[in-house]
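Side project, low priority. Logging it here so it doesn't get lost.
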Amino acid sequence: MSNQSRIRLEQVTKRWGASTAVDNISFDVTPGQFVILLGPSGCGKSTTLRMIAGLEEASSGQVHIGERDVTHLPPGDRGLSMVFQSYALFPHLSVADNIVFGLRSRKVPKAERRERLNKVAELVDLTDYLDRKPAQLSGGQRQRVALARSIISEHPICLMDEPLSNLDARLRSDMRREIKALQSRLNMTVIYVTHDQVEAMSMGDRVILMQHGTIVQDGTPDELYNRPASAFAASFIGSPAMNLLPLVAGANGAVIEGEPGTSVAPLEAAGGQLGIRPEDIELHPANSPGVPATVISEEYLGADTIAYVAVGAHTLRVRLNGRPLLTQPACRLYWAPEKIHLFDANGQRRHDTLQEDPSAAYRRVPRPPAVGSFQH
C-alpha cells in the first residue's frame, strides 16, 4: 500500500489552559493497519483522533500523514474520512444523497457519483434503502450509511470515533465484524477510538491503551492480555477484570496480605502487587494444595459462573465453566505459576525478571488433582 496512508505523531501535546488533555505522545501507524485507541472516558483518545483529523490543533508536536507535515492543515486537506458516534446524517436528505454529499461538494461528475454509489451501497448492503430518509432506518442501517459516506470518498485513511456506542449489544457484534471485513477488503488504514475492550480485542491489529493523556501500552491484543505493562493495563483488558492483590513478605516468599501460609511469588515481589486473571484460577476442595479461600457468593451467567472468594481481607473473582456445585464455602485456589503477573507497589511497572525465576518456592506448589466440579 502507498506510504501516503502512513500516520505518525511526534511528541504531540494538547492543552486547554492549565489542563493537559494529551501529554507528549508519539506513535506510528503503518498503511493498512487497524489501530485501536483504547481507554476510559477523559484519557485523551478522542482528542488524539481529532488532532489527526485536524478538528483540533496540537499545542505542540507534529502530525504527519504520508510524507507531509499536516499539523496546521485544515481537515479537508488531510486526505482522510471520519465516522462519528452520532452518525452525523442530514435528516432531510435520502440515504443516497447523504452518501454522495461529499462527492457533490467536490464537484465529482454525476455519472461517476452514481457508479461509486452503486458499488458502495452493495458493499454495505444498502442497495434497497437508497431512497429512504435516515429516520426510516434502524441504528445499524444508519451506521452503515455513515460508513458508506466514508468509503465512497476513497480516502485511504478512515478515523472512527466510538461509532458503535449508540447500538445495542447484538448490533454492535454484527457491526464489528462488518467494519473489520470492510477494512480488510479495502485495505484501509483505520484508527478507531473506543472505551470498549471487546471492540479493541476483536477488531484491532494493534491497541494503544491510554490513561491520563499518556500511552500506557502499545501492542497487539495478545500482548496486552498476556503481558500487561502495568496494573492499569492488566485491569482494563479482560472480563471480569484481573484480580490485583497486595503482597507482603512471608517465611518462604511473598504472600497475599492477610494469608501468610502460602507463598505465591518470590520474596523480592513483597511490597508490590500480584495479578491473576479469573479464568486462570482453579477452585479445589479444602483438603487440596493451594491458597486457602472461602466462597462468598456466585453469579451464574449460563456458559460460566463467576465465584467471589475471600483470601485474607481481599475478594477475588474466579471464572468457572458452567454451573459447578459450590456446596462448601471453604476451598483452595490453584493457578499455574506462569499465569501470574507481578507489578511494583503503585502498579506502574511490570516485574518481568521476578516472574522468570525458576527456583522460586512458589513454583513448587503441587497441582491438585482435577475435579469435575467443586463439591463435597
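Brief comment: The first strand starts at residue 7 and ends at 16.
Revisit when time allows.
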